[in-house]
Amino acid sequence: MLAAQSATELRLALRHGEQVLLTVLVPIVLLVGLTLLTVVPLPEPRVATVAPGVLALAVMSTAFTGQAIALGFDRRYGVVRRLAATALPRWLLVAGRLAAVLGVVAVQVVVLGAIAAVLGWRPEPAGVGWAVPLVLLGCAAFAALGMLLGGSLRAEITLAVANLVWFVLLFAGGIVIPVGRLPGPLAAVAAALPSGALAEGLRDTLATGAPPSAGVVLVLLAWTALGSALAIRFVRLR
Known about the structure:
Elements: H1 2-15, H2 17-36, H3 46-76, H4 79-84, H5 90-118, H6 125-152, H7 155-172, H8 184-191, H9 194-208, H10 214-234
Helix pairs in contact: 1-5, 2-3, 2-5, 3-5, 3-6, 3-7, 3-9, 5-6, 6-9, 6-10, 9-10
């Protein structure tokens, strides 16, 4: 049942044109553009800073923005309520969505990693192994927050809020501009956000091969726990 539900959710996600644009095409454009153009001052090689940030953006786009919008409109059209009335237990509905998120993120990582390699990115091999659990933690944190947003607000409000948060975190959440290059107060806020923690964690571990810092892991775990607790309390099926 879990495999069937996960496969269905994954097919629906990959067939959704707007979601593919958000989760695949936009990160590719940013990866190539920020690497080749000096729009944002970054150390050389630029791709070493840009690629991990774009990977964090891909996780956020899929697990948070895409998940929130999809859940919001599924609730609006009664899809979630009808599925909950079937033999599928509620935990399996959630697990199927999370498995689909992981499937889309896996595709994103492969595609973006291949393009970054063509652009000259050479991450530390040891760092790649540490990046995998870091990406999984990022997926957990953003998925919990996405389900909270999409499961508690009306679909139209969810659409507006999810896109607004995406844009704000893109430019002020440590993704395009590294946390260390943001103004002092903003840098402190960005470092405590899941976007900044994931992006900086990926930059550090992929550049040095060292494990992610305890601070990065704790930030992501805290957001996962907070988002999950609030989602359990406030998510509605209708």
